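Forum: Protein Structure Q&A
Topic: Joint prediction for protein chains with partners

I've read a bunch of threads here and the consensus seems to be that you should model interacting components together rather than docking separate models afterwards. I'd like to see that in practice. Below is the full input, 462 residues plus whatever partners are listed. Could one of the regulars post the assembled result?
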Amino acid sequence: MDILLHFLSTTGFAEMTIGNFLMIVIGIFFIALAIIKDYEPLLLLPIGFGAIVGNIPSIAGMPLSVYDEGSVLSYIYFGVSKGLFPPLIFLGIGAMTDFSCMLSNPKLVLLGAAAQMGIFITLVGAMYLGFSPAEAGAIGIIGGADGPTAIFLASKLAPHLLGAIAIAAYSYMALVPVIQPPIMKLFTSKEERLIRMKAPREVSAREKVLFPVGAFIITGLIAPGSLALVGMLFLGNLLKESGVTERLAETARTSLIDSVTILLGFSVGASTQAQTFLTPDSLLIFGLGAASFCVATASGLLFAKFMNLFLKEKINPLVGAAGVSAVPDSARVVQMVARQEDPHNFLLMHAMAPNVAGVLGSAVAAGVLWSVLGL
Amino acid sequence: MQEMVFSWQHVTNGDGVALSLTGMGIVFVALLLVSLYIAMLPKLAAFCNKIIPPSAHHSGVEAPAPAGPNEAEIVAAAVAYLHKNKS
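Posted by a regular:
Agreed with the consensus. Here's the joint model:
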């Protein structure tokens, strides 16, 4: 009987708190969103399941959770806490990204820069709310709408906020089709949404090979803090475009990125233990993240309208919203909103240009923030 | 975060506005330079093609078009010639 009673005292039921229960419900909600609504299933499903795993109370004295030294989960979480997984994800993204749309219309790159305003405006907002500059930088990067970049920077600047920042970043990435359309309609007129853009030009294979090398040297020299992210992004792209390393590119864009995505999503989810996650700070981070994302979308749209003041061939301002780097979801949303006005207007390829430029822009922004705030 | 006090003083103490403007400026400059580099790429690619012509065995790089007629064209020309001079 004593053995049974002792065993019962070590079960999860005995240590379960309301916070743990709430986080398990949130985990189930994420899984439901992924399966039923198809919102970012590759991420929300492992994160949701990880949240359930992370909120089963541990047995005192046994290393089980991601925060317990020597536990199996802590070794998986090592890739998140030390910023190892994000560059590997970037390698895969580089190997699957075709930069042709951006190479055929270089002025659209600036929209990717404009959308990064969300990061820096939110940084000020977070400091106003009492976060330290380093914490504010890590929170602001949510506006880049780039999960791996947000995790990378949070692990460097504010590791204690990593769980909340990662969950906020991935949640808003999943909610791109919900958050962006109202902002896009608010900041553009019907006439602007009807603008058609010229078909992109053909880009030669030689240009595609030269691009990653030159662009890496430029961005790497300007923001060395972004070397790991940008370096892996362009290495992946060079593997794809060189034509001589197809096997490596194939591995990077399939097996490697899939494996890392599973480990990253699961361990980020498992890091959301109620005791560390359900705090007033997390609520503020979610609020600031939403604001950051909205500001980023609006900045891209408004900058596209500003560019139109000087351009003979007008650009559809909707493509500015794709400057947030949720690839390719925000580009798809641009296409969806444009087709609501004109079913024959195809903006997807044009929107992919600021979209991939946004990936680059948010990585550079992360590098800048790390070099300025992390030293 | 140590305390939940909302104050503009936090922003001024941490040079928040200067940090924000500088950060935005650097990202813009970086992507502007990338944009200029992309605009130069067609010329740069043409220059590279002169120095190192694209080789056929690199599947990702386009091979130069064959200079003369191919075998099928030669056969077609021969057949046309024979047909014309049959009589």
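Residues 8-84 of chain B form one domain.
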